[in-house]
């Protein structure tokens, strides 16, 4: 029972430390709850960004992807870096100048409140689905550890327990507590991953690098992909670098979950520094987790996932954590995985509550009038509501056998293209108005849905890195064409 004891101690300690360090609870306003004080250091925001975007999907799934395909997530990080540089250069100055609480307020200022609410609603829907995948993935190793201790816990109860624990410090401390807890939790699970990498390296037989190279497990990209398969594989050089850059331009430039963090930096320069440095930290994390995956491939004699007895790629690292490590180390690492889940979950809950309150003010006024709540009371109530929704979404993914990280990225990428296109129209041109932007936004979402459902090159779906640039180009193209048609003189 050492492992569960370690996890329990961790669950009690981290929220308390985060609340103490953040001096949380001293402000009693919704603005303080959503972090509009602009007083957080850039390095804490940097680590919080990484903890928020990576989460359990990364910790659990990247080693499994590396087991089957090599160091391809490191190649994807190159595109991530390019995308973040573009966000820091093109979008952050506009956001900071507007003193925004929700990134979608920029669209409200540019196109009007209807556009703001439409795009915010898209964020809320897709984020609920994507975070449901993350929450489900985070419960997997916890369930395995408890099963190893002969403790049977239903999936819904496990998910609910994680959410309730996260709600405690999310509702009390607000965004300040979340950012500090993210920094602590990232340090925990990154250290655990490095520990596993070192243990596997020392336990490997001589000549491991030669075996990995011969098996293609050190490649950063899938270079031997041609024809239709190039559109379905997100890890080709073009898909990873160009598609990854556009994906990051969308996620870190239009997703309230991530933009919310850089908006609370002390200055524009600090916001840009945190954003760009986070890409470098993500690259290092990808390298460590991918190293764990390829060394596990070597440990299993280069056998395929099925031949090695794994139900899917997400089972590779979870199995090693539970069965390949001493109990104390296993408990600490599972606590780290749980930390990743809670960090991402708390960030999502705060961001979704913030978007609900700031982008739908009528909803906040209704809650305040009917439930007799103050501003911060409404914010906390919306946090609880979204927590219940996320538990329901997580239960929908029970029984999934694919890679959770790839599925989660695909869900997010579905709307990212149209969202990026909307912001692109707002920043790059003054000609397009709401009358053109909103139809173009709807057409882009429809086109992306058609691409996801109907376009199957070689019988496989399009790679998630291609959905974003195609959706963004469609949105911008539709908007410009509609604006030109409206202004064209009649014959």
Task: Average the pLDDT over all residues and give the rounded result.
Answer: 82
- The tally of beta strands, per DSSP, is 0
Tell me the strand percentage band: under 5%
> Radius of gyration in whole Å, from Cα?
22 Å
Which architecture does the CATH hierarchy give at level 2?
Answer: Up-down Bundle
Total helix count?
Answer: 19
What distinguishing features does this structure have?
mainly alpha, Sodium/glucose cotransporter
Kindly describe this structure:
This protein is mainly α and 491 residues long. It has one domain: Sodium/glucose cotransporter (Up-down Bundle). Helix content is 78%, strand content 0%. It contains 19 helices and no strands. Helix 7 packs across helix 16 and helix 10 crosses helix 19. The longest helix has 49 residues. It is globular, with a radius of gyration of 22 Å. The N and C termini lie far apart (82 Å). The mean pLDDT is 82.
Write the layout of secondary structure elements.
Elements: H1 2-22, H2 30-33, H3 42-69, H4 72-97, H5 105-111, H6 113-148, H7 155-203, H8 208-214, H9 229-232, H10 237-254, H11 256-263, H12 268-299, H13 315-323, H14 327-359, H15 361-371, H16 375-396, H17 404-428, H18 434-454, H19 464-487
In short:
The protein is mostly helical and 491 residues long. The protein has helices at 2-22, 30-33, 42-69, 72-97, 105-111, 113-148, 155-203, 208-214, 229-232, 237-254, 256-263, 268-299, 315-323, 327-359, 361-371, 375-396, 404-428, 434-454, 464-487.
